[in-house]
Amino acid sequence: MSLFSTVVATTPFEGQKPGTSGLRKKVKVFMEKNYTENFVQCILDALGDKLKGSTLIVGGDGRYFSKQAINIIIRIAAANGVHKLIIGQRGILSTPAVSSLIRTHKVLGGIVLTASHNPGGIRNDFGIKFNIENGGPAPDSFTDTVYELTKKITEYKFTPDLDCEFHQTGTQIFQVDGRNFVVEVIDSSDDYVALMKEIFDFPKLRELIRGNEKRPPFQVLIDSMNGVTGVYVTRIFVEELGASPDTNVRRIIPLDNFGEIHPDPNLTYAKDLVDKVKGDPTYDLGAAFDGDGDRNMIIGKNAFFVTPSDSLAVIANNLDCIPYFKKKGVYGFARSMPTAAAVDRVAAKLNKEMFEVPTGWKYFGNLMDAERLSLCGEESFGTGSDHIREKDGIWAVLAWLSIISHKNMSVEDILTEHWKTYGRNYFTRYDYEECDSNDANDMMSHLEQIIAQPDIVGKTYSAGGKTYKVKVADNFSYVDPIDKSVTKNQGIRILFDDGSRIIYRLSGTGSSGATIRAYFDSYEKDNVTSEAQVMLKPLIAVGLEISQLKQFTGRDEPTVIT
Ligand code: G16
């Protein structure tokens, strides 16, 4: 049947500005007439001449409104001359899987339907982001173009009679405006599982999980938090590695509202997992992922918590346990600015280049493409390597299992050994969610004034018997070493002469109000086994005094502490 596209008149919506990783808003906002259509059309317009005849990957974490959004994308893409869409079955693809597919199929990019770790369901969040040819999140230059287009859009192209189902795998070909338009629906996990099997030694990991004559099964508890990773966890941990579907995995059916939980793998929102591992000493390792599968949290026996910054440093120190790196070699390491500097010490010892970038995985892409960066991570529970251009939750757990299998040590012992070698960066992050935006902005302006004081360097602050002397105070900016692009205003940093750091920034991933993030990092060479919250108490007190957070926001306590 021949189908024809049409042009639909529309008017701009305010605020279609992508944040740290795509546009995230309440589902009800995306449901407004033409809201999603406008944004999708602007993404396609931003691709310019490359769009016609191109192939794009489409999929996401399956949250509420995904199916409607995919139908919109299909109809707009066909009308705009896209040749082919490759869609995950039932619209399901984790963010790392999209990145991998873009690279495997060598296509122009992918549209990812997710608000990541934000809650889902009709009352919560939806999101759309675009990943470019290298598989990574679009850089600021692209998302700025999209935003400018959203401010002046007057029409979008649409193929109203194009009905395409994406529940079964297979290829469908449509005639749109006299051209072939192809939709290929693929298995959501085949490509990703194949990639993981290339990177890791699966027989060895299976032996760890199943046990052998010398050691009992290593008991894991993998929690998909009702997000997209359930599909991949079933394939990889249960079918390939022999984990028990009853006792080693949980919440593995992706639900469009994530079962009304907040699918964010941290000590607050994954408390349920933490309690289970704490309450059952047979578990050797617990892990959780967020809604779209790019974040991870690792805990050891008795819920021993591994901070993401330490996780990155430990993996960096043990890359020789992973076949991929043995074969490919290791370039440099990188972390986002607020991430504790534990990995920097490993880089120095191994004589690797070390990069500090703004918050956002998109800032790692150029360095990876230029073969300067192999492994990177963020304090926001992101860890990954140059096997793709997104952070990768399942990859991180497989990396940890590879290290454990190789060293035959517990999670806690691996950490303790690491700290004894390198010293320890005590780190914590305080999140103040859904603050009034004006209050949060006023607090940030106050901090701007503090760092602008002529006598700020050398100033001392005291709390809990400790005194800190300011060495540097600035608003972080970054020059990309590859394309020389400059990114400014990435967070207020107050660095002290003993190496301690206090950082304040506003989150770029929320959908309403403002979330203030305060990061505290302090290094100890010898005292490595104390409680992080106790060790950091004086620094936190100084940080709260400098920012006057309570006075500006009225908040006594953070919403989340990690
Ligand atoms: C996104 C980005 C990450 C970033 C995180 C935190 O994560 O992909 O690179 O670290 O946001 O952002 P913010 O502190 O601005 O909220 P995700 O998992 O939400 O896509």
From TrEMBL:
Q: Where is the Alpha-D-phosphohexomutase alpha/beta/alpha domain?
A: 16-156, 192-299, 312-422
Q: Where in the cell is it found?
A: Cytoplasm
Q: Which EC number(s) are documented for this chain? A: 5.4.2.2
**Which InterPro entries does the UniProt record give?**
A-D-PHexomutase_a/b/a-I (IPR005844), A-D-PHexomutase_a/b/a-I/II/III (IPR016055), A-D-PHexomutase_a/b/a-II (IPR005845), A-D-PHexomutase_a/b/a-III (IPR005846), A-D-PHexomutase_C_sf (IPR036900), A-D-PHexomutase_CS (IPR016066), Alpha-D-phosphohexomutase_SF (IPR005841), PGM (IPR045244)
UniProt keyword annotation of Phosphoprotein present: yes
Q: Which principal EC class is assigned to this enzyme?
A: isomerase
Q: Does the keyword Coiled coil apply?
A: no
In the record, biological process GO terms are: carbohydrate metabolic process
Q: Which cofactor does it need?
A: Mg(2+)
Supply the NCBIfam families for this chain: PRK07564.1-1
Note the PANTHER family from the entry: PHOSPHOGLUCOMUTASE (PTHR22573:SF2), PHOSPHOHEXOMUTASE FAMILY MEMBER (PTHR22573)
Q: What is this protein called?
A: phosphoglucomutase (alpha-D-glucose-1,6-bisphosphate-dependent)
